[in-house]
Design brief:
alpha/beta; about 40% helix; elongated; Rossmann fold; 2 domains; 12 strands; four-stranded antiparallel sheet; Arc Repressor Mutant, subunit A
């Protein structure tokens, strides 16, 4: 873990020191800052993999600094805050935080969340194939197999599904989905809703009551990873009878 650099931006010196000590015991390289001014200097100097950010800094707006960090398109951000109501959590996530931890918190939970975030950056090269149980995504052929059957997706639907699945259940805002899944800049986040609706028609048993691509109120969408491990019969997929018939005809032709 010595190659992983973490920056702690925390106004409370005792908590900052305690978090730093525990992370150093796990052999992370740790740099600390007590203010927005110091935090920016440390970030630019060390380019940390993960930034642990106090949302309630005394000399500046932690939320605004989170937005600045997010625009750098490099660090993971774990936000810490004494404010724990839904509106504050949503604000933090929309500002670019990858995770939000309310104070007070247990040290084991804190370390577990750090580990979960760091795992996102451990794969040195992009995989060619992703396997999520009943869902397989071929990144080379750009094909998706769901519950044993190939799903016919448009290029944009494929990108959207891939980004949602890669987030491993973490809710993503519409703006974040646009940034990650669209090749060109688009100003209308509601474009996501149209493509999600189209995608649900192809992968959900009941698009009106989606269970795979879930809507998270006031945030965006998340991919329900748990349902992929359920033993759902292949015959329950949303593939049309016509497509199934065409596949059988193709197989019969190949075997003759």
């Amino acid at each position: 873990m010595g190659s992983v650099c973490i920056e702690i931006i925390e106004g409370n010196p005792h908590l900052r020191s305690l978090l730093g000590w525990h992370l150093q015991q796990l052999e992370y390289r740790v740099h600390q800052a007590a203010s927005v001014y110091q935090a920016r200097e440390v970030f630019l100097s060390h380019q940390p993999t993960l930034v642990i950010l106090d949302a309630d800094l005394s000399d500046g707006d932690g939320i605004e600094f989170c937005r600045w960090l997010h625009r750098q398109e490099q660090p993971l951000i774990l936000m810490l805050s004494a404010r724990n109501n839904e509106a504050d959590i949503v604000t933090g996530l929309k500002a670019g935080a990858d995770d939000y931890l309310s104070k007070p918190f247990g040290m084991q939970e804190f370390l577990a969340r750090v580990e979960a975030l760091i795992r996102r950056r451990r794969t040195p090269t992009a995989p060619a194939y992703l396997d999520y149980g009943t869902l397989q995504i071929d990144l080379v052929q750009r094909r998706v197999r769901f519950q044993g059957e190939f799903i016919d997706l448009t290029p944009q639907e494929f990108s959207l599904l891939y980004v949602l699945a890669q987030a491993s259940g973490t809710p993503l805002s519409r703006s974040e989905l646009l940034r990650r899944a669209w090749p060109d800049a688009i100003d209308n986040p509601r474009t996501i809703d149209t493509h999600v609706l189209s995608l649900r028609k192809k992968v959900e048993l009941d698009p009106r009551q989606p269970s795979l691509i879930q809507t998270i109120r006031n945030v965006g969408y998340r991919f329900n990873m748990e349902i992929l491990n359920a033993n759902v019969p292949q015959t329950s997929t949303k593939l049309s009878k016509e497509k199934f018939t065409n596949q059988r005809s193709t197989l019969a032709t190949q075997s003759s």
